[in-house]
Amino acid sequence: MNEERSLARLKPLFFGRLSRVLAGASALLAVPFVGFEGLEVIGAVALVGLGLSFLIGGLMANPGCEITALPNLFLRLDKRVHCL
Prior knowledge:
The chain is an all-alpha fold. The chain is 69% helix and 0% strand.
């Protein structure tokens, strides 16, 4: 348990952060180009959510999985969750 907590405190490297930001921006930019007809509403919402989580995870240097980036915005530092 202590080893997991110490790994969760490591900051992602610049390349990892940059690739997350680029992936998030491209996912958000893909929605208008593909359109809601091609994605349907649920697909567009999922793509926007994925794009936001990648973008926020890269900008905040959230360690671990991008899925935890959005909930970690609303949690205190000692209560944040990380998937390693």
